[in-house]
Amino acid sequence: SASIASEFNFGTDPESAYIVLHEVTCPIVIVSWELCVDYLYPWEMVHKCINTNTPKANFLQFITKASIEVQKSSEQPGYRSCDAFAMAVAIDSSVVLDKVDIYASVELNGTLTRGMLVPDWRNKLQKSPNVTIVTKTDTQKSLGLWMNMVHV
């Protein structure tokens, strides 16, 4: 998370995020930070995956080493990989178990909330949905895609 109210990508460049949400006409699917916090890969499976001894597993081990060390040092009960969840959703939509179509924007001016995604949960603005926010995923299926990746 980039700040107390924004995740990394939106917080780094809120104006670009705003343009994407308001001008892009293709479907936009959001895998939120909150979703990634709630759905973790079991450590046992992560170690099995990265220790497979294939070129892809070796590369995965290299690029995840620092994040694994940080997450383990905080005694996190599993591995959080927002990128893996986002790619799983993009590759196989059946990974998504629940979602909501909603209108959302990005806060550009807030002192504490600049870069925050602001979904209109109560439809106060009465605007057509412009994003789909994933609210529940099949962690086992997502993990299966991650595991299969190192064997292909």
UniProtKB/TrEMBL annotation:
Gene3D superfamilies (alphabetical): Ribonucleoside hydrolase-like
Protein name (Swiss-Prot/TrEMBL): Inosine/uridine-preferring nucleoside hydrolase domain-containing protein
Domain of life: Eukaryota
Pfam families: IU_nuc_hydro (PF01156)
Record domain Inosine/uridine-preferring nucleoside hydrolase: where: 5-141
Xref: InterPro entries: Inosine/uridine_hydrolase_dom, IUN_hydrolase, Ribo_hydro-like
Family: Belongs to the IUNH family.
Single Gene Ontology MF annotation: hydrolase activity, hydrolyzing N-glycosyl compounds
